[in-house]
Amino acid sequence: MTLSEREDVWHALYFFNNRELLQNHALQKWGLGEDASQKIAEVMVDKRYAPISTKAAKNILYFLKRGVSYQLSVVLAGVKNSLNKVWDNIEENDIQFVINRVLDLYKENVNSGFIPKLKEFLLDEMQFSDFQIKKLYGLQAQSLDFSVLEKFPYGAKEDKEIIDFKNPLLKNTLFQTRKIINALVEKYGGIDELKVELNTNLKTNKFQRYIYRLDQRRVAKNRERYIKRIGFVSENLTQHNLLKMELWEECKETCPFTGDPIPLALLFTDKIKVVYLQPWSISLNDSTLNKTLCYAEFSKKLDSKSPYQYFNEQDPAQWEGVLERVKKIFSNTLDYPANHKKFRKFAKRYHHRN
């Protein structure tokens, strides 16, 4: 499939909300059979990500590559989108002028109405039409009149504005935020500035949040156990020792590379090393998922190679046996329900970088 065809498939999977319509689209536009189109219609795409079209993403990326912040890249991408094909014929000097002008307008009016000034610039200096203004991204292309209140207002009207939001987690958050901020204002006086950071879990459903909380409890319980075991052997409670204890339990107290057991008495010595499964110089992955334990002598032999690269060079016939052993070592358990992901990391043959 060409890139354009793949993007078309992704757009259909992401934006169709009706399975029947998606199946008809697959039948008529892609020429798929009844069975294939039905399977396509059953594909569920995680809609917590990619909330913008590919075209919008490319327009925003155009300015991100020029070192513009994301917020202003969205604004400039809207300008580019409004001009459509005209943008392709604009000289580089003029493009830089537009970028610099928008950046200056933002710096000068960030606290006193950036949007009206931007519209004024686009209408007067760039001769935008009202239709083009409506094609801007993320601004709603309008200036809003507002006044600063001492506290968040209470009342049936204000409650309804919050209740009208569809996301129940967002509604609860807003009600609680209003309650806390008003209490702070009553006790300490007015607040100069509020900074709000939205957790990505805000976009998950109730069941997904429940699973996430269960996993967080599992992680916390595991950590308590690490601390107790490290204290039992009278070792220092450092991040490195905590990591070693976690990896030691993950690999079932066994070196995945050699199959030799790792006694607790050796775990915190220089004889046991933390190594990357996929070399950091290639993967740039410093997460725990990409780490395991290994005897120091063997770690020297790895020399920034992945397990597959090492065994394929030294003894290819041994590789299948190593995989069978490692599959058991990194099998899922109650304390490590996603341990099999580490086995896949170990068995990975090639590292593809996007």
Entry keywords:
mainly alpha; extended; 354 residues; two-stranded antiparallel ribbon; single chain; 2 strands; 4 domains
Summarize the structure.
The chain is an all-alpha fold and about 350 residues long. It contains 18 helices and two strands.
Helices and strands in order:
Blueprint: H1 3-15, H2 19-28, H3 34-41, H4 54-64, H5 70-83, H6 92-109, H7 114-124, H8 130-134, H9 156-163, H10 168-188, H11 206-232, H12 239-250, H13 264-267, E1 272-276, H14 280-283, E2 291-295, H15 296-302, H16 307-314, H17 319-329, H18 340-347
Antiparallel strand pairs: 1-2
Helix pairs in contact: 2-3, 4-5, 11-12, 17-18
In DSSP terms, counting alpha (H) and pi (I) runs of 4 or more, how many helices? 18
Shape: extended
Uncertain runs are 141-146
Judged by helices, strands and strand pairing, the structural class is mainly alpha
How many structurally independent domains?
4
Query: Number of DSSP strands?
Result: 2
**What fraction, in percent, of the residue positions are helical?**
55-70%
Main sheet record: 2 strands, antiparallel
Query: Separation of termini?
Result: 18 Å
Instruction: Strand order, main sheet: write it out.
Output: 1-2
Strand content range? under 5%
- Based on CA atoms alone, the radius of gyration comes out at 28 Å
Kindly report the average pLDDT value: 84
H-E string: HHHHHHHHHHHHHEHEHHHH
